[in-house]
Specification:
By secondary structure, this protein is an alpha+beta fold. It contains eight helices and six strands. A hairpin with a 2-residue loop joins strand 2 and strand 3. Helix 6 runs parallel beside helix 8.
């Protein structure tokens, strides 16, 4: 128990040490700073959290020993609790809250009003389309073996820009995972795709509000 409590103060003790010895170039100590930050988080959030170790990664069909240590939150009620504490009235709405009595148990709250409303759509809002080739006739695929291919990432970005030219309202992009979403957004930001999308949706469509939601499934 004493060792566990000591971890909680690693962040503050390291910063105090750095200040005492008057370290100027903090970048040289990024590694130990990261370790102390992680140790403090582990000791701070004891309930509802767990350390997950992935010793082997699968890269392009081959196993590579590249250990990854993560602190995972396993209790969704901990994430929503600050919202309930801060606001007197909270409205939770979604098209996928089913069964409706399941989520109050998971999030640890007692709903005052709970309603499930039928939905009817006058027109067909979904137009499914399979795109297998980009403008340069390069392959577009979300397969794990091809998703890191620069041409695939480039063609996905080009497809997004072209869709922005013809879609009059906002757009929602779904990705296969959070990590893949972060990688594509970073790459698109570097090569100007995000700026082009912003320009299309804001300037060409003369819209005062830009809606571009990136989600993960």
């Amino acid at each position: 128990m004493y060792r566990f409590k000591a971890l909680k103060f690693m962040y503050s003790r390291l910063n105090s040490l750095m200040t005492t010895v008057q370290v100027v170039d903090m970048e040289e100590f990024d590694g130990i700073q990261l370790v102390c930050d992680f140790a403090t988080l582990v000791a701070t959030y004891a309930q509802g959290f767990m350390c997950v170790l992935e010793p082997v990664r699968n890269l392009h069909g081959r196993e590579v020993r590249d250990p990854i240590l993560q602190l995972a939150c396993l209790d969704a009620s901990l994430a929503i609790k600050p919202v309930f504490d801060r606001f007197q009235s909270v409205v939770i709405t979604s098209g996928t809250l089913s069964p409706i009595d399941f989520y109050p148990k998971v999030l640890s709250f007692n709903p005052v009003v709970s309603r499930s409303l039928p939905m009817s759509i006058a027109r067909q809002p979904i137009f499914p389309m399979v795109v297998s080739r980009g403008n340069d006739q390069g392959v577009i695929s979300s397969r794990f073996e091809q998703r890191d291919d620069p041409s695939v990432i480039r063609n996905f970005g080009s497809l997004l820009i072209e869709m922005c030219r013809v879609v009059p309202d906002g757009m929602i992009c779904f990705f296969t995972s959070y990590s893949y979403m972060e990688k594509l957004i970073t790459t698109w930001h570097d090569n100007g795709v995000i700026n082009k999308v912003l320009k299309r949706k804001v300037c060409l469509l003369n819209s005062s509000v830009y809606i571009f939601s990136l989600c993960s499934v």
